[in-house]
């Protein structure tokens, strides 16, 4: 019987890693890749495949199935979720018929609140923790562009059977995905969250890309202030993060293409809804919960909350 893997969210993350899986398991006897997509994206991929553009190459891949019809999707063994965080509940409930009690769910969102929110919806399911480092985005319907060579996927769980985790890791490895099954996954996810939360908040607040922030003393100061506030919260929560986490995060940013920016900033510039709750407001709320002052995050939240499209 084939292992059936659904990809929910065909953006920069879901599209890219889903594309690698679709390429590796095209017409496979052991693994079936299902793209859960609707509208123009579904139509384009069904007709022309999913195109992935990299710095020096491009490829077009076809999944086993591309649909938003539960009857066509059928039951899933694994579900990789990569929608925007504001779509978590609605997107998952739309395919609840495809999620059995044995479906293992791997969230690959920008925030850290997704596993708890998913577990609230599906309390009987194994919900893993995961995160990715990648610069990729939708450039048009059915076309994903990845910038730079840096791409890593981390996942794990403190409760799931090791056989379940090893099986997924083997599937990733055979698809040439640089994936890591880690024991201390909560710390790993928070390291990524510190990186993306501060970056999304800074780029969106300042309306600047990575290079502009790094080259401006005042902009860099805002970014570092955000890092100081969020790492203080992580420390109070008892997370065992590296002592030099702020320096590591800045070095990580310096390795990112200078003309790149956060997905939240791209959405803001395009007039789309932004992930303000999970990436900025969540930190302010955690600060209130743990009695940690977050004046810079509050400043960002106050400004971006005035944007009518924010949640």
Task: Describe how the helices and strands are arranged.
Blueprint: E1 3-8, H1 12-24, E2 31-36, H2 39-48, E3 50-53, E4 58-61, E5 65-67, H3 70-73, E6 76-81, H4 88-93, E7 99-107, H5 114-121, E8 129-140, E9 143-156, H6 162-174, E10 179-181, H7 185-206, H8 210-215, H9 217-236, H10 245-254, H11 263-269, H12 276-290, H13 295-305
Parallel strand pairs: 1-2, 1-6, 2-5, 3-9, 6-7, 9-10
Antiparallel strand pairs: 3-4, 8-9
Helix pairs in contact: 7-9, 7-11, 7-12, 7-13, 9-10, 9-12, 12-13
Describe the structure in your own words:
It is an enzyme of class 1 (oxidoreductase). Its EC number is 1.1.1.169. InterPro entries: 6-PGluconate_DH-like_C_sf, 6PGD_dom2, ApbA, KPA_reductase, KPR-Related, KPR_N, NAD(P)-bd_dom_sf. Belongs to the ketopantoate reductase family. It is a single chain. By secondary structure, the chain is an alpha/beta fold. The protein has helices at residues 12-24, 39-48, 70-73, 88-93, 114-121, 162-174, 185-206, 210-215, 217-236, 245-254, 263-269, 276-290, 295-305, and strands at 3-8, 31-36, 50-53, 58-61, 65-67, 76-81, 99-107, 129-140, 143-156, 179-181. The strands form 2 sheets. It has a 5-stranded parallel beta sheet. Strands 3, 4, 8, 9 and 10 form a 5-stranded mixed beta sheet that branches. α4 links the parallel β6 (76-81) and β7.
């Amino acid at each position: 019987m084939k292992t059936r893997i659904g990809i929910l969210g065909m953006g920069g993350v879901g599209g890219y890693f889903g594309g690698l899986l679709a390429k590796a398991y095209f017409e496979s006897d052991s693994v079936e890749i299902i793209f859960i997509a609707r509208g123009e994206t579904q139509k384009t991929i069904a007709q022309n495949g999913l195109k992935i553009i990299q710095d020096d190459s491009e490829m077009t891949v076809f999944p086993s199935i591309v649909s938003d019809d539960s009857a066509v999707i059928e039951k899933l063994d694994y579900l990789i979720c990569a929608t925007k965080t504001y779509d978590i509940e609605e997107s998952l409930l739309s395919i609840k018929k495809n999620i059995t009690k044995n479906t293992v769910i791997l969230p690959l969102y920008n925030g850290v609140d997704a596993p708890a929110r998913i577990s609230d919806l599906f309390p009987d399911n194994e919900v893993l923790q995961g995160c990715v480092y990648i610069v990729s985005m939708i450039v048009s319907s059915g076309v994903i562009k990845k910038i730079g060579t840096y791409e890593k996927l981390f996942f794990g769980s403190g409760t799931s059977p090791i056989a379940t985790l090893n099986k997924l890791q083997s599937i990733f490895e055979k698809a040439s995905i640089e994936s890591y099954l880690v024991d201390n996954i909560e710390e790993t996810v928070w390291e990524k969250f510190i990186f993306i939360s501060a970056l999304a908040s800074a780029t969106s607040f300042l309306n600047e890309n990575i290079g502009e922030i790094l080259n401006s003393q005042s902009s860099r100061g805002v970014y570092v202030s955000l890092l100081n506030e969020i790492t203080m919260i992580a420390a109070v929560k008892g997370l065992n993060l590296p002592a030099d986490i702020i320096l590591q995060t800045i070095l990580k940013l310096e390795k990112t293409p200078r003309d790149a920016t956060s997905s939240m900033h791209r959405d803001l510039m395009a007039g789309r809804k932004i992930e303000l709750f999970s990436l900025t407001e969540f930190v302010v709320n955690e600060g209130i919960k743990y009695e940690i002052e977050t004046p810079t995050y509050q400043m960002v939240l106050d400004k971006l909350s005035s944007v009518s499209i924010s949640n």
